[in-house]
């Protein structure tokens, strides 16, 4: 197999792997082959690395890595952002050295505005994200942080215990980050590419970081590819091509163009790096746009996945308007906001165990939480009906206010 084919296969397989890894756990793929492949591969990687560690060092390597990461992981974590910025800087340097001089056809607007802005934006976004990193929740800001979001009592509970490390209450939508060693308000995720937490405060700059990288890398790919195409066209003018096996001759000429000189080599490498990285950044950005559409953060997406599992297991109950036909899913859409999950001392209870009992009979069960005063009043005033949640779409996510409002809220526009 030629090296070009190997490279194409590598890009395709890497993209498929990344897609499964990033999207496979989404609620929409629950129970599908995508979800099963992701679960199986994650379990395989964890189990095989643990068993290899047990065989080689009786678990000492794993323990050492865990302890070292705990001690200096945050400082080692800076290697990834520094490495990524160094790679991008090298690519930009190669671009201006070997590709840009051949872009003679571009106008002044592109030359003096588009190219400088596209080049500078990822650096600016990185600096802005780093300097607006969310502060850890402390005694001084806990009151402000608690006021920022309401508790939905579905994935964030008013009566949840304090953070075991910070010994402070957990505001809605916050999470403790073990890498940053603190609770973060409006927590989205801990970003390894920037070695910091992304929260309510710096999400807009993180989003700018994603978009600016997509723009830079896509522009780089298109510019490099068009320069290589220009060189190919020049060569084609000089080379007669027969009707038969045309694509093979094209590939031969393309290879000749790519390997002709050091500049061509650099332009080819740059094209492939930009293609691969732009695919990765486009996937990351698409995931975030999708989460904004759903009205969830990255952290919450996992929590909603658990809720969806509980719905399919039949362990979720709630209160809804008695006038609604809860068997009609389209009618019952977003109709339940007071949610209770039935649990026993051993954890979740299976569907069959439920079906044997009346849902109002709580003798052998407890719920995952107590109803609040306001909820009791709402149930009484509106005479709400206690029902089993049949479909995930019946549950109302109070943080989802429609795509454009979610976008405005996340980007703080
Ligand atoms: Zn904490
Ligand atoms: Zn963090």
Describe this protein's structure:
The chain has 413 residues and is α+β, with helices and mostly antiparallel strands. Among the domains are: 1-76, no CATH class; 300-396, no CATH class. It is built from 13 helices and nine strands. The protein has helices at 3-23, 33-57, 60-76, 79-99, 108-131, 142-148, 203-238, 246-259, 262-294, 298-313, 351-355, 373-382, 403-410; strands at 175-177, 182-184, 189-191, 196-198, 316-320, 338-344, 347-348, 366-367, 385-388. Strands 5, 6, 7, 8 and 9 form a five-stranded antiparallel beta sheet that branches. The chain has a two-stranded antiparallel sheet with strand order 1-2. A hairpin with a 4-residue loop joins β1 (175-177) and β2. α1 (3-23) runs parallel beside α9 (262-294), α5 (108-131) packs antiparallel against α7 (203-238) and α7 (203-238) crosses α8. The two termini are 52 Å apart. Residues 177, 179-180, 190, 197 line the site of one zinc ion. The site of one zinc ion (ZN) has 6 residues, from β2.
Number of helices: 13
* Computed CA radius of gyration, to the nearest angstrom: 27 Å
In terms of structural class, how would the helical and strand content be classed? alpha+beta
What coarse outline follows from CA principal-axis ratios? elongated
């Amino acid at each position: 197999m030629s090296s070009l084919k190997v490279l194409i296969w590598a890009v395709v397989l890497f993209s498929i792997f990344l897609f499964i890894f990033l999207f496979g756990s989404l609620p929409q793929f629950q129970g599908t082959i995508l979800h099963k492949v992701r679960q199986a591969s994650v379990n395989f990687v964890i189990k095989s690395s643990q068993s290899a560690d047990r065989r080689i060092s009786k678990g000492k390597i794993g323990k050492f890595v865990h302890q070292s990461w705990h001690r200096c992981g945050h400082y080692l974590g800076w290697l990834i952002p520094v490495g990524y910025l160094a790679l991008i800087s090298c690519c930009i340097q190669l671009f201006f050295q070997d590709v840009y001089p051949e872009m003679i056809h571009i106008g002044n607007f592109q030359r003096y505005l588009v190219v400088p802005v596209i080049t500078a934006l990822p650096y600016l976004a990185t600096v802005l994200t780093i300097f607006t990193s969310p502060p850890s929740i402390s005694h001084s800001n806990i009151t402000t942080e608690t006021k920022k979001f309401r508790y939905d009592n579905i994935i964030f509970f008013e009566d949840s215990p304090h953070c075991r490390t910070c010994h402070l209450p957990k505001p809605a939508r916050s999470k403790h980050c073990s890498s940053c060693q603190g609770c973060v308000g409006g927590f989205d995720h801990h970003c390894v590419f920037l070695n910091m937490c992304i929260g309510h405060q710096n999400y807009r700059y993180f989003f700018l970081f994603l978009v600016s990288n997509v723009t830079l890398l896509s522009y780089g790919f298109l510019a490099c590819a068009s320069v290589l195409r220009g060189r190919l066209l020049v060569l084609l003018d000089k080379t007669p091509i027969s009707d038969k096996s045309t694509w093979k001759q094209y590939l031969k000429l393309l290879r000749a163009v790519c390997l002709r000189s050091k500049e061509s080599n650099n332009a080819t490498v740059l094209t492939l790096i930009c293609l691969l990285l732009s695919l990765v950044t486009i996937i990351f950005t698409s995931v975030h746009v999708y989460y904004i559409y759903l009205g969830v953060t990255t952290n919450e997406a996992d929590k909603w996945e658990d809720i969806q599992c509980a719905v399919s297991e039949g362990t979720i109950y709630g209160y809804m308007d008695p006038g609604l036909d809860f068997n009609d899913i389209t009618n019952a859409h977003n109709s339940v906001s007071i949610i209770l999950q039935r649990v026993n001392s051993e954890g979740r209870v299976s569907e069959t165990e439920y079906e044997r009992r009346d849902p109002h009979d709580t003798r052998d069960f407890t719920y995952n939480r107590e109803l609040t005063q306001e909820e009791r009043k709402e149930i009484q005033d509106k005479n709400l009906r206690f029902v089993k949640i049949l479909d995930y779409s019946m549950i109302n996510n109070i943080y989802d206010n429609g795509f454009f409002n979610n976008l405005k809220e996340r980007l703080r526009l």
